[in-house]
Design a protein that fits this description.
The protein has 108 residues and is mainly α. The protein has a single domain (9-107), classed as Orthogonal Bundle (Actin-binding Protein, T-fimbrin, domain 1), CATH 1.10.418.10. It has four helices and no strands. It has helices spanning 9-25, 41-57, 67-70, 75-107.
Length: 108
Amino acid sequence: MNNGIPITETFITFIMSFSLLINWAVPGTIDNRLIPRLKHRYDVIYVLDLALNSARAIGCDIGHVKSIEFHDRSEDFKLGLIWQIIKVSLCALIVECDFFLLLNSIAL
């Protein structure tokens, strides 16, 4: 019974890297204990759903993509999603640095 997602080692590696990238951008978004245990098809689909929902939660524009449709998307879509995650992380870093600079200027 195939649900439409060909589960290959490359796809599993992509999902693991994608989940780790989301955790790098916003720490604590995805539980790290779930990522290395991608053994069965249902685990892969569950972690992919979790990663897509986490990406939406941190502010990425994904649209109405579900895990079953994600594998069929173009490489441009996947690279665009990775760029959005990096952009969220960089923007958070800039805001955090500006906030500390503001606090330091008020304290002086």
